[in-house]
Amino acid sequence: MRSVLKWIPNILAGLIAGLAAAVVMMLAMTLSRYYLGIMPPPESVPDRVASMLDIETFFSLFAKYGGYNGLKQFGILSGLRAIVGAGAVVGIVYALLAESSWSRRSPRRILGTSSRVLMAMTGAILVVWIAFVIFLWPVLPANYRGLPYSQARIVSIVALLVWFSIFVFTIIGIYRFMVKRIQPVGPSNTEPESEIEPAVPSLGVALPRRAVVTIAAGGLLTLPIYRLLSRMYDDATFSYDGRAYNGPGVLPITPTESFYSVTKNVVDPEVNRDLWRLEIAGHVDSPHTYSFEDLQGFEQVDQVTTLMCISNRIGAGLFSNARWQG
């Protein structure tokens, strides 16, 4: 029983380190999303999963969570909870690895941890990173600052590696900060060299004061996360997503401000049109690439067209008429 109880301070230190690392990673993801337009996993995973659902499952979830907005908010909140849960689990696993005899016997230490554990954690980063890249491949080109697909995919792949690395190495650094490693006392010089066995270092000693400092610092980091999320919420599509146009006052041409709106985005992108090109290629006689300015130089045509959402049901009003020019 005592052998189990002596592990509890280290497990708690790992738990705190994991939760703090989760907060740090969420801050990095939030900053990347707000300033660089990179879609983090709490947003990209639901986006990817949604495309894999059959229509019946989609509509059942649609009804369960009260429409598009409720479904999107559920997906993001689930992703944030998953990050916190992963932080707790990975932090505890790291503590168990760091304090295992396999780790403590390691003759070489890097960044305050055994080289064996460091290699294991680095390998875990790469495995998880590759798995996420494979799973999220179709949605990785999304960028909400208007990067073209090819550039956006590379940026998203690099961002995933950076986020996961921040998470793991924050756990390592915080755990080292909270746990003091006591070096074993070497054998006396009077013992024959053949009888000397290397001493196994004891478990690290958790320092309660440093744990309190870590908890306080993690709490402070939640403030900028909250502020950034609040800004994105204010800019989000929740106020107009799912807007329908129906009722007795329907006009033949829908007013712009009343045009139906359905979007999968939590925050709509800001497209940098100077970076985008329209490429005419393939089995054509005259391949060509056009900029936005080139397209504006063509003769303008007016056309009245009806748009209808694929999710529209009878009487739902998710369709509108407009006069388009281009």
Outline the structure in words.
- The chain is mainly alpha-helical and 326 residues long.
- The chain has 2 domains: 2-235, no CATH class; 256-325, no CATH class.
- It has 10 helices and 8 strands.
- The protein has helices at 2-5, 8-36, 41-50, 55-64, 68-99, 101-104, 115-136, 149-178, 208-235, 292-296, and strands at residues 109-110, 113-114, 179-180, 205-206, 278-280, 288-290, 302-308, 319-325.
- Strands 1-2 form a two-stranded antiparallel sheet.
- Helix 2 (8-36) packs across helix 5 (68-99) and helix 2 (8-36) runs parallel beside helix 9.
- The longest helix has 32 residues, at 68-99.
- It is elongated.
Topology (elements, then pairings):
Layout: H1 2-5, H2 8-36, H3 41-50, H4 55-64, H5 68-99, H6 101-104, E1 109-110, E2 113-114, H7 115-136, H8 149-178, E3 179-180, E4 205-206, H9 208-235, E5 278-280, E6 288-290, H10 292-296, E7 302-308, E8 319-325
Antiparallel strand pairs: 1-2, 3-4, 5-6, 7-8
Helix pairs in contact: 2-5, 2-8, 2-9, 3-5, 5-8, 7-8
